[in-house]
Specification:
The complex is a heterodimer of chains A (229) and B (388).
Chain A (H helix, E strand, L loop, with lengths): L3 H34 L5 H13 L2 H12 L4 H10 L7 H25 L3 H9 L4 H29 L3 H7 L9 H10 L4 H32 L4
Helix pairs in contact in A: 1-5, 1-7, 2-5, 3-8, 5-7, 5-8, 6-7, 7-10, 9-10
Chain B lengths: L2 E10 L2 E10 L3 E5 L6 H9 L6 E6 L2 E5 L4 E2 L7 E4 L11 H10 L12 H7 L15 H14 L4 E5 L7 H17 L4 E5 L2 H7 L2 E6 L2 E7 H4 L6 H4 L5 E12 L4 E6 L3 E5 L8 E7 L3 E4 L10 E11 L9 E8 L3 E8 H7 L6 E6 L14 H4 L11
Parallel strand pairs in B: 3-9, 3-10, 7-8, 8-9
Antiparallel strand pairs in B: 1-2, 1-4, 4-5, 5-6, 10-11, 12-13, 12-15, 13-14, 16-20, 17-18, 17-20, 18-19
Classes of the chains: A mainly alpha (229), B alpha+beta (388).
Chain lengths: 229, 388
């Protein structure tokens, strides 16, 4: 059985990861589109920046977020002044950290799905009277769905498991920023915390495996639906 | 009569694509030429999927493109129907939804459609396929759906870009009659891109000839076919001629029909058409034999007197085993006979020589010939290259 603390950490993690993925999905689609379909000066730079969280140490990302979004930072300061919004030590900050870490995974999956779409289908739709916007919503988006779904689920799993960026940016506040990985870490540093830590580890494992499995299943289902069995 | 006026130039890699013609849009016009000659490019230019560098494209009173005046009508507003070589059905939609895709976007034109949904579905035999998904269909079925989808967009002009090229022979034979039927059923001009001789001869009444990225001639099929670049339509293994005629009478005892052609008659296996129906008959050169005197003790029913007009290739050309002998018969029709060079020498066939063309009735069977309805024979007479 789980203690209140453990349930708290689990619930928080799920909330943070969900918000992170949902909020960054439209941006991920937009960036994937830019990288897949457009040519512009600075494209390589954008590509590099988007993929940084995959290669940089997570703590470095967290530090960068602190510099930018902390209450003394340029963006964080502005948010605090204009809206009274504070990101550090809050779950929204945790969501931001998780989102940044998961972003490249989403963009990659969506970009791949986009690049796999037969442009001839889009031309055909245009000749049948569909404007470019119409084509995007009635042809491109449905065909991108497998990539969006599987990318979203993998991003969700990655967001769930972030440690370095989260703890560096928003700290380890139980109930507010102490997501699953942080809780496990804290428990291992506590005497008699091993049993609880083990329980949470098993949950984390189950979530990760479940997410990957669900991602595969969902993508396959969607592929069947759009007829690419 | 709506006219298609094209005068464009566009560079593609190292070749410059030029088209300059003015055609009345009636019936089915074939765009013919070898692969890579620029036919598909022209379709893409007319559709708006490719932009010319210079020039003008207009269909009737509507200007699609005018470089000088900066006009470039967007693709989705050109009201065209395009059938691509690879069908391009939307995999995430059922056949029924694919069919309705263009119809739903046809706005005003869908209110009293010239090509109604039920008529198109019936014409193309798609009733049984409506709930299916494109990836479960055969190649022939997919193309029929693609044709239906393009028709249902209520286009002012139907463009078909080598629609049968990716099909094997049986599928092609399955789909071709549907195209003939739609040509005759709807009052819709069709531009048909192909490099297949039999499709041109069977379907078209007008022809646009392509060679290395340029339109070299355009006009009625019976006229343009004389152009040097149309040699493939006249010569080679598919050599043959188109003979115009009409059904004269039927012989129920022997199951034969007599066709009255220009100055001579042909007996063919029975065709189910009323007397007086104008038809167009393809007589393959391989089925025509030649004799110096009319043989009576031979099984061949059709023996037509004529005079040798031309022997191809000429004496200067490299030697080949087969030779095409063109013979003028009746009131001026030219028949083509494919014979061995050996026979030509043996019989001393030369221009001016009187001879008889022997054609087996059995060889003019429905599979070996194309019976075209009279509609296709009424060609657009006043077509040609656009004025400078």
């Amino acid at each position: 059985m789980l203690t209140a603390v453990e349930i708290e950490a689990l619930r928080l993690s799920l909330q943070v990861a969900l918000v992170a993925v949902a909020a960054s999905l439209p941006l991920a689609i937009g960036v994937a589109w830019l990288l897949a379909r457009c040519e512009f000066p600075g494209k390589t730079l954008l590509d590099t920046v988007v993929h940084l969280p995959l290669v940089l140490p997570p703590v470095v990302i967290g530090y960068g977020l602190l510099v930018l979004f902390g209450t003394q930072g340029p963006v964080g300061g502005w948010l605090h002044e204009s809206f009274g919004l504070r990101l550090i030590f809050t779950r929204w900050g945790a969501a931001l950290a998780a989102a940044v870490m998961a972003f490249p995974l989403m963009v990659r999956a969506i970009r791949l799905a986009l690049e796999a779409i037969d442009r001839g289908l889009e031309s055909a739709a245009r000749t049948l009277g569909a404007s470019r916007l119409d084509v995007f919503f009635t042809v491109t988006l449905p065909l991108m769905l497998p990539g969006i779904v599987s990318g979203g689920i993998v991003a969700f799993a990655a967001a769930l498991g972030d440690f370095g960026a989260t703890i560096t940016f928003v700290g380890n506040v139980p109930g507010e920023t102490q997501t699953l990985s942080l809780a496990i870490y804290s428990l291992t540093q506590t005497p008699d915390g091993d049993a609880a830590a083990a329980r949470l580890v098993l949950i984390a494992l189950a979530l990760a495996v479940g997410a990957l499995y669900a991602s595969e299943l969902a993508a396959r289902r969607v592929r069947l639906y759009i007829g690419r069995a | 009569m709506t006219r298609l006026r094209v005068d464009t130039r566009r560079r593609l890699g190292s070749v410059e694509h030029r088209a300059d013609f003015d055609l009345p849009l009636a019936g089915l016009t074939a765009l013919f030429g070898p692969s890579g000659a620029g036919k598909s490019t022209l379709v893409n230019l007319i559709a708006g999927l490719l932009r010319p560098e210079h020039g003008r494209i207009a269909v009737g009173d509507t200007v699609f493109f005018d470089a000088a005046r900066g006009i470039d009508l967007p693709v989705h507003r050109r009201e065209l129907g395009i059938v691509f070589q690879d069908a391009r059905l939307f995999p995430h939609l059922s056949v029924g939804d694919n069919l309705r895709f263009g119809l739903r976007r046809a706005g005003e034109r869908a209110r009293a459609p010239r090509m109604p949904y039920d008529a198109v579905v019936a014409l193309l035999g798609l009733e049984a396929l409506l709930a299916r998904r494109p990836h479960t269909l055969s190649g022939g079925e997919r193309q029929r759906v693609a044709v239906g989808r393009a028709l249902l967009a209520q286009p002012r002009l139907l463009l078909m870009d080598e629609p049968l090229a990716s099909l094997d022979a049986p599928r092609k034979a399955e789909v071709l009659p549907y195209i003939e039927h739609l040509r005759d059923a709807f009052d819709l001009p069709i531009l048909y891109v192909t490099h297949a001789v039999d499709e041109v001869l069977r379907l078209a009444s007008a022809l646009v000839l392509f060679e290395r990225g340029t339109v070299v001639d355009a006009g009625a099929l019976t006229e343009v076919i004389a152009h040097p670049a149309a040699a493939a339509l006249r010569g080679g293994a598919d050599a043959g001629v188109l003979v115009a005629g009409a059904v004269r009478d039927h012989d129920p005892r022997y199951g034969l029909t007599t066709l009255a052609c220009e100055g001579f008659a042909l007996r063919v296996p029975r065709v189910d058409l009323p007397p007086g129906t104008p038809v167009r008959l393809r007589v393959p050169a391989r089925e025509v034999a030649l004799a110096l005197s009319p043989p009576d003790d031979v099984s061949i029913s059709n023996r037509i007197a004529g005079r040798v007009e031309q022997v191809l290739p000429g004496p200067d050309a490299p030697a080949s085993a087969d030779v095409e002998v063109r013979v003028r018969v009746g009131a001026g029709t030219v028949l083509s006979a494919m014979v061995t060079r050996e026979s030509v020498e043996r019989l001393a066939l030369a221009p001016g020589l009187r001879c008889w063309c022997l054609i087996k009735s059995v060889a003019l069977h429905a599979d070996a010939l194309a019976l075209a309805r009279g509609r296709a024979l009424r060609t657009g007479g006043d077509a040609g290259p656009a004025q400078a």
